[in-house]
Design goal:
3 copies of one chain form a homotrimer.
Chain A lengths: L12 H13 L12 E6 L5 H12 L3 E6 L7 E2 L12 E2 H11 L2 E5 L7 H5 L2 H9 L4 E3 L7 H14 L6 E6 L9 H12 L3 E5 L8 H4 L3 E3 L2 H5 L4 E5 L21 H4 L6 E3 L12 H4 L6 H21 L2
Parallel strand pairs in A: 1-2, 1-5, 3-4, 5-6, 7-8, 7-10, 8-9, 10-11
Helix pairs in contact in A: 1-6, 1-12, 2-12, 3-5, 6-7, 6-12
Chain lengths: 315, 315, 315
């Protein structure tokens, strides 16, 4: 693997998941890959799981890691071409990405959608700029349109817990007090379909995902109907793509509850975390035996480690 | 040792101090203990000595370390049970502690008393929540009620410098412009009494420590009288426990001065740092040959390293 | 080398540059030097290149590194002697420097000029305080008056790209929206002259460097005239030394342009980064084949690594 920006960079998805499951069994056997190599983690936004699981993955691989919180520790970055830089942005991405990429063997970046301008977010300005100017392989730790490390961790988790070959997976929108990016939902939808599972997406009208992410998934506006027979319920809030970045609904009836879970085929409950308890999901569901939120989070280590392994192998 | 929240987790105090003194002589001999293991340091508050000495202790043990500044780098945490999470707190401690504890072999936490609500601080909400939800051993890097790593460092220092078996140790309150937690004073009092030294605590009325910390120490409201015959003077400001979090006095007459030190048995001066010079203690005292503030700070490495060693040995 | 505060700490400059060029060829051969040793990087100001290249240099040397962002992570520091510390500064540099220096084998510090008080900046209060109170060797990662790690990286770069023994080097002031320190210009001027290259400094009147830095360089107020026959153009903004910290000019005619570069001897363009594009320098120049800004930035690794190697060898 050269870089990891989205599922498009994955050549063989079943092989990738298989590799992850193997790595999880013996996480320290690839330490030679990290020898005399180093990675930079660049955060333009807060992070807990991604920050820590990425460092843990690097520890497992013997890979040295430097962490940069742009904004609090570095300089504000300019992304526009040809601009006269007399604002508060002290450094152009051309230099920043080129320099960082000359220091490290791998560069991982988190840059959330700002939800102000759909084109800017969906053009993946930050990630594409790094791809263009950074000579080292880059890894997407959540970008304007996707969060593929999360989707890979989710896929590993489903593979560990599915009891049928092609489980029915339901991605359900849930309410949230803040406007959130579509990144997690987009990637989950793309990866689940790429894995050829049966995917139903349920949400209030107006929350349709971008076409490329929605793909051929069934869209069902009736949440209870969507839950029927589900093997996995994946809850996530996102803001509207059509009315970009807007909160169209805060309807508490969309919260995932114990009662709704009864409609499913004893489904496992999933969420990428952090989660708003009793807003997105009832305590009774997330605290139940069927909750997979912790295994998902743990698999973030192996998701990152697998991507790093495949990138380091190609250096 | 399973976890290290307070002196209650110490089985054999003399053996612990002896272990620390041995480790200090040969700090790199336990590197095998850290092999393929890692620690997370979680800071909810600022830190200099704790942050750096903990990393140094980990270096000495070959233990990989990730540092998380919650707030600036992570998410605001919710600690209350059953709450509808529609505030600015994006993640519940249940998930945060469980996830971090699934990534690392040891988790160390700093969470100062907020001095707003005595029950909240003295119930040790943060530390107890981590203990409850974090599957990995946890270490207290200063909590609502105690700072046991500091107390262990102080005890190591006293053992290195005492000239009699049972020295007279005086813990004296001193003025300070800000309201400070009782944590350092509480732990010092408990550990010095556990070590069976002769402890006198002196402070203005209203600054009595919580009963569990005060124990059987002599309380003397006349500072000069308390200093008489002392072998060690430990200065520290704290806010009132009875009138919780309040500053009852800023009386500069409680500053530790050269003249007062003359009342002692050529006592050594101690403070945990950071210290307000010429507010808590005169320059002439902290800069004198009898000052132990730097040896105390250096012993923070061996205090943390000893606790880590004992925890790693039990993994 | 004991410490590295300025060029005054360099015994043999040609040997230092030669060492750097050797290290660059085989960056991992000195890993034994870092064994069981550690460094602390202390930042009082933002940093990208310095932060990351220093960590990379340490990785190459097998040296463990802890990073401290004073202010956001630690305590505000007091530098004045004898003061009653009842302000917002919680810790005196005497303790902070002594403690950090007792934890680590090397301590590197970044403390920009504040541009408020010339004496304070040019007395190097922060760096001199560390030198005085820190028992470990210290490294200047940019101080009130100089940025010697940058100057060494620049010198390495010039040595790699010069085609004549004594190239004509031009340091040109350039406009900038913010008042910047003189540190980079000061050090560049001193190091280029120490290397016995032919140095011309060009700037509007009022921007003369401090005498010690200006040395015997030619000063030419006509930028175009200065550019004639130049082999290297080094652009940098700085605020006035005479009218301390003031912006005396924002004249866009001082920007380095393609047309002006035509006056040179096909000169290479240099800048320490971060750079304001189309304010300090035109896109056409920084993006040209003659631009050395990225090689300069890469050489920051070897500049730091060479200084660290020479310090570690003397421990």
């Amino acid at each position: 693997m050269k870089s990891f920006l989205s599922i498009n960079d994955v050549e063989n998805l079943p092989a990738l998941v298989k590799d992850a499951l193997e790595i999880k069994k013996n996480p320290h056997v690839y330490k030679v890959l990290g020898r005399n190599r180093s990675m930079c983690l660049i955060f333009l936004n807060p992070s807990l799981r991604t920050r820590l699981s990425s460092q843990k993955a690097a520890f497992n691989l013997g890979l040295q890691t430097a962490v940069l919180d742009v904004g609090s520790q570095g300089w504000q970055l300019e992304f526009a071409d040809g601009v006269k830089m007399d604002s508060d942005k002290a450094e152009h991405i051309k230099e920043a990405a080129a320099v960082i990429g000359s220091y490290f063997d791998v560069v991982a970046i988190r840059a959330f959608a700002k939800l102000e301008n759909r084109d800017e977010d969906y053009n993946e300005q930050v990630m594409e700029s790094f791809k263009k100017y950074c000579p080292a392989p880059i890894i997407n730790m959540e970008s304007g349109t996707g969060h593929p490390l999360q989707a890979l961790a989710d896929l590993i988790t489903i593979n560990e817990h599915k009891t049928v070959d092609k489980p029915k997976v339901v991605l359900t929108w849930a309410p949230h007090p803040k406007a959130l990016p579509q990144a997690v939902a987009n990637s989950f939808s793309r990866w689940i379909q790429a894995a050829e599972f049966d995917l139903t997406i349920t949400h209030p009208k107006g929350y349709e995902l971008v076409e490329e992410a929605a793909g051929n998934a069934d869209v069902e506006y009736n949440q209870e109907k969507a839950f029927e027979g589900a093997d996995f319920i994946y809850a996530k809030n996102w803001s509207s793509y059509a009315h970009y970045g807007q909160i169209l609904s805060n309807d508490p009836d969309w919260m995932v509850t114990e009662n709704k879970m009864k409609l499913t085929n004893n489904a496992r409950f999933m969420h990428c975390l952090p989660v708003r308890r009793n807003v997105v999901v009832e305590d009774a569901v997330i605290d139940s035996e069927n909750s997979l939120v912790l295994p998902q989070a743990t698999n973030r280590i192996y998701s990152m480690q697998t991507i790093l392994k495949q990138i380091l192998e190609k250096l």
